[in-house]
Amino acid sequence: MRTVLIVLFDDVQSLDVTGPLEVFAGAEAWHGGSYRVLTASPDGVPVRTSSALTLVPDHALDDAPAPHTLLVPGGRGTRHPDRRLTDWLRGHGPRAERLVSVCTGAVLLAEAGLLDGHRATTHWAYCDKLARDHPAVEVDPDPIFVRDGRVSTSAGVTSGIDLALALVEEDLGRETALAIARHLVVFLRRPGNQAQFSAQLAAQTARREPLREVQQWITEHPDDDLSVESLAARARLSPRHFARAFRSETGTTPGRYVERVRLEQARRLLEDTGDGVEEISRACGYGTPEAMRRAFVKALGSAPAEYRRRFRPASTS
Predict the structure, then answer these.
(1) Residues in domain HTH araC/xylS-type (predicted)?
(2) What CATH class does 199-317 carry?
């Protein structure tokens, strides 16, 4: 049986705690004898979450049993961390077989020196600060979770559920993880490499309706003519005016936005369907497999076929 110890502190984000907790508790219910899930706070006294929910821990940190998996949630309480908590993590973190953080829990691990030399992520709003304050940590702002050896870190809030499901799948197999996901009514597989934002969320939504309509058109028709001239005509603007207005209102150029949408759609089709690379390249507007291959190598460092081998489950048909 693996002991999962979840650290609690005042102003913790409640979903950072309860999301992974429900996953591991569900695994224990489904596959008895697999996990013992415990919580602990510095003094063993109840803590008040950032949403005013009170959580009652099982133990004080100093009295908690040695964990197999030590999970550190995030929340407002990480902005000015309790020195007792970071000191405890510094002393006990190296003994855990698996270190896991959710959201800004990565900040606490970094403060304790446990992320030095590791690749890690956190909530998108705090990635720059984490990188600035802890230069020994290789911060990747894009994925929803990152696994680097015994250290696993996840982005904001619900991504902790995705990471917990990935850990359960590793420990107990895909069928158990799938059963838990079904029970929680969540997707089993949002792979860790998935971006924290979709292309539509990564860019700002344009203020003017014609530009918003163009953004939606691009998303729904990645295989269409998405040249600046064609998109400008759809927005009833000159190409020069359109390109300038689109960048001003969305924070990115039309071409870059189109690239993100096409790449995102191609990744989804590679992960979720058995369609061939040539068929996907046409459906996503690349035209040829070679054009799609160049886009994947440039953005992801791997060709489409290799990407599919890495991120598409063998059971997908």
Answers:
(1) 212-310
(2) mainly alpha
Choice among 4, 27, 103, 214 that is catalytic: 103
**Is 284 one of the annotated active-site residues of the chain?**
no
55-77 per-position pLDDT tens digit: 999 999 999 999 999 999 999 99
DSSP assignment of the chain, as one string? Answer: -EEEEEE--TT--HHHHHHHHHHHHHHHHHSTTSEEEEEEESSSS-EE-TTS-EE--SEEGGGSPPPSEEEE--SGGGSS--HHHHHHHHHHGGGSSEEEE-TTHHHHHHHTT-STTSEE---GGGHHHHHHH-TTSEE-SSBSEEEETTEEEE-STTHHHHHHHHHHHHHH-HHHHHHHHHHHTS-S---TTSBSS-HHHHSPPPSSHHHHHHHHHHHH-TTS---HHHHHHHHTS-HHHHHHHHHHHHSS-HHHHHHHHHHHHHHHHHHH----HHHHHHHTT--SHHHHHHHHHHHHSS-HHHHHHHHS-TT--
Q: Which residue has the higher pLDDT, 272 or 166?
A: 166
Domains of the chain by residue range: 2-184, 199-317
* pTM of the predicted protein model: 0.69
- % of the chain exceeding 90 in pLDDT: 68
